[in-house]
Design a protein that fits this description.
The complex is a heterodimer of chains A (424) and B (237). Chain A contains 12 helices and 8 strands. Chain A has 424 residues and is α/β, with parallel strands linked by helices. Chain A has 2 domains: 247 residues, no CATH class; 105 residues, Spore Coat Polysaccharide Biosynthesis Protein SpsA, Chain A. In chain A, strands 3-2-1-4-7-6-8-5 form an 8-stranded mixed β-sheet, with helices on both faces. In chain A, helix 1 runs parallel beside helix 11. Chain B is of the alpha+beta class and 237 residues long. Helices cover 68% and strands 9% of the residues of chain B. In chain B, 21% of the residues are buried. The chains are: A alpha/beta (424), B alpha+beta (237).
């Protein structure tokens, strides 16, 4: 059993290092093309853009969000904002009503149906050639829209994703997420160079209206509609870009419980979307997303869970041995501990793991450099490695478990419906 | 048409995947190389420890046969004992983590030989110089064939810590060394009856707990204290 698990461990580590080396190779190739602008820019033309803001019980944060949109450095007559109250039970509606007087803001109210229904309602009122969305707990940098629009000069580009940044982290949970989001700036840009983006994030991704005219409105997509629309676009060969200097600030979950639930939802959505789009996997014509992005996501889920299993197994074996020792020879036998360099682990796997962790930290630093202009070490990196290392396997496990359960439920449903139809 | 082809090429570049594979493979092989390098250094370290112990034993033996009872004053035995047991631990770790290689089998044989020499020497010193010590010969084998052996090992380690004058010599039953095989024959150890312990020419098979062994060892200490009395009585009369 041990040699099988060692082989699997080797293969997974090899594949994980492969993913990191892959990103590095793209970085070395294309780093001159990474565009990070510092000041304001002027565009040759300013197309009309509508931003849809769906909200549900966001009375505290919605004002900041809408104000950041109003502060966008973009001609006021070319920017429209639609705020949709998805049946909130708090004072969200009263809060957004205050903005009604603005010429370019339209507010709508509907019964609760989920974020994607609010977005689709907004879609009906869009009459500009471009549109985007913004989550009610996020706010945009004033230069973000202009910088994004420069990517649409290329007529093939159908959507542009921004860089999401954690706003003022206050504790180590938020600090760890800040490090992770910094790394995402790097990986997204690298994926964009190869046409392999698999998520157009909810907060402030900008689309050509044509995308929804051609491909249809948002779908429920297991509450990850921002991922599903990106996969739909990839399936239809629509080009997605990434704008590293368009900043969207988001409030990250500030407790372990909230982070856990958020990630479990995201991974569940990811797995179910991958199952829905399994036909595109490893098909050459769909390019990088099919050969690299989605498979590497699946590998990381498998690796983390496998690693968890191994760590558990090792801990249990260690405890059993200690218990046997105490049983036979009393407590004193485990108290002597001396360190000798001889016993230091020098197996191949150990060095490969060091390589893997170093490359992850490298990605993080590169993302941070794109964001801040310089490489900066901070404790966030440590929090990220430790907290995610400890928690991620569990939310991944829960997400996998939920996916299996939901799949079983849908098979049962199909079977029951099938039986009913047969009976009729 | 051209633009579409260009797009297709941008979307899928076989070469990158292949190049990255070879780079990752090269990194992997470098890790293997570094691991081997460190493992070999550890084996070298073991070898040099064994050479040192071998020289020390040879020196004590020579010292002993050159001078007769007078050499009792110069005999230092405690350092050798801890070095030998440290070596034993490292050898065991090596077998678990580096895997059974030719090198390690050779080192294991060398170690068993050193243990036997140490045993013979210490017996001579203890009887001639009246140094208080008890000797346990411990025969074991791999975990698949002997489930109690690991537990017995723990018992013996605990007793060694408690009684510094106790000397435990462990022998893997399957060591292909004529000296070990000779001992197995002398005490008639059977591979079906492992773990086996020999204390004062008495063979005990099967798992013995801490309390049982402690009693046996204490009796062995007492037996020893009785003997010098007899020799000194003989001399006086």
């Amino acid at each position: 059993m041990s040699s099988v698990s060692t082989t699997i461990y080797f293969i997974l580590t090899f594949l994980s290092v492969y993913v990191q080396v892959f990103f590095l190779s793209v970085f070395l190739d294309k780093r001159k093309k990474i565009l990070v602008r510092k000041g304001t820019i002027e565009l040759s033309e300013y197309p009309g853009v509508t931003v849809i803001v769906p909200c549900y019980n966001e009375e505290k944060t919605i004002t900041g969000t809408i104000e950041s949109l109003l502060d966008l450095d973009y001609p006021k007559d070319k920017l429209k904002i639609i705020v949709i109250d998805d049946g909130s039970k708090d004072h969200t509606w009263d809060t957004i009503k205050k903005f009604e007087e603005h010429q370019n803001i339209k507010i709508l109210k509907k019964e609760n149906g989920g974020k994607y229904t609010a977005l689709n309602l907004g879609l009906k009122y869009v009459d500009t050639p471009f549109l985007g969305c913004l989550d009610a707990d996020s706010f945009v940098d004033s230069q973000a829209l202009k910088r994004i629009m420069t990517y649409f000069y290329d007529s093939h580009v159908m959507a542009v994703a921004p860089s999401i940044v954690v706003d003022k982290p206050k504790n180590i949970i938020q600090g760890a997420q800040k490090a992770e989001y910094d790394m995402a700036i790097y990986t997204k840009k690298m994926l964009a160079f190869l046409g392999g983006i698999h998520v157009t994030p909810g907060p402030f991704s900008i689309f050509r209206k044509k995308v929804f005219e051609d491909l249809g409105p948002y779908r429920h997509a297991h509450n990850t509609e921002d991922q599903e629309i990106a996969l739909r676009m990839q399936k239809n060969h629509y080009k997605i870009e990434h704008c590293p200097d368009a900043y969207v600030y988001t409030v990250a979950p500030n407790s372990v419980g909230k982070l856990f639930r958020q990630r479990q939802r995201w991974i569940y959505g990811f797995l179910r979307n991958v199952i829905d789009y399994k036909k595109i996997l490893f098909k050459k014509k769909y390019g990088t997303v099919a050969f690299f992005t989605l498979p590497s996501g699946i590998i990381s889920v498998i690796s983390a869970i496998f690693l968890l299993g191994m760590v558990f197994y090792n801990i249990i074996v260690f405890l059993i041995n200690k218990i046997i020792q105490i049983n036979i020879a009393g407590f004193s036998s485990i108290s002597n501990f001396s360190f000798d360099w001889f016993y230091f682990d020098t197996k191949t796997i150990f060095f490969m793991s060091i390589l893997l962790y170093s490359s992850v930290v490298f990605s993080l630093l590169m993302g941070r450099r794109m964001l801040e202009g310089k490489i900066r070490f901070s404790f966030d990196i440590l929090y990220f490695v430790i907290i995610y290392g400890a928690l991620a396997p569990f939310w991944l496990l829960k997400a996998v478990f939920n996916t299996i359960r939901s799949k079983q439920a849908s098979w049962t449903l199909e079977r029951d419906v099938g039986l009913k139809l047969d009976a009729n | 048409m051209e633009k579409q082809e260009e797009q297709e090429q941008q979307k899928f570049d076989w070469r990158r995947y292949v190049v990255v594979f070879f780079i990752t493979l090269a990194l992997f092989l470098t890790a293997v190389y570094i691991s081997n390098y460190f493992n070999n250094k550890k084996l070298d370290q073991l070898k040099s420890i064994q050479d040192k112990i071998s020289i020390d034993i040879l020196s004590s033996e020579t010292q002993f046969s050159l001078l007769s009872e007078l050499s009792c004053k110069n005999v230092s035995d405690t350092v050798l004992s801890s070095e030998l047991s440290e070596l034993g631990k490292k050898l065991e770790w090596g077998e678990d983590n580096i895997g059974k290689s030719e090198e390690l089998t050779y080192l294991r044989k060398y170690y068993s030989l050193l243990e036997i020499k140490d045993y013979l020497l210490m017996k001579k010193i203890s009887s001639r110089c009246g140094v208080k010590s008890a000797f346990v010969l411990y025969f074991y084998t791999t975990a698949e064939n002997c489930s109690e052996c690991q537990k017995e090992g723990i018992v013996l380690s605990a007793l060694k810590d408690k009684y510094p004058e106790l000397r435990v010599y462990s022998f893997d039953y399957s060591t292909e060394l004529s000296a070990v095989e000779a001992m197995i024959n002398i005490y008639k150890i059977k591979d079906t009856k492992l773990p086996a312990l020999v204390v004062d020419d008495n063979v005990y098979t099967g798992f013995r707990s801490v309390e049982e062994l402690e009693k046996t060892i204490k009796e062995s200490f007492k037996l020893q204290e009785a003997i010098p009395e007899n020799t000194s009585n003989k001399k006086s009369s």
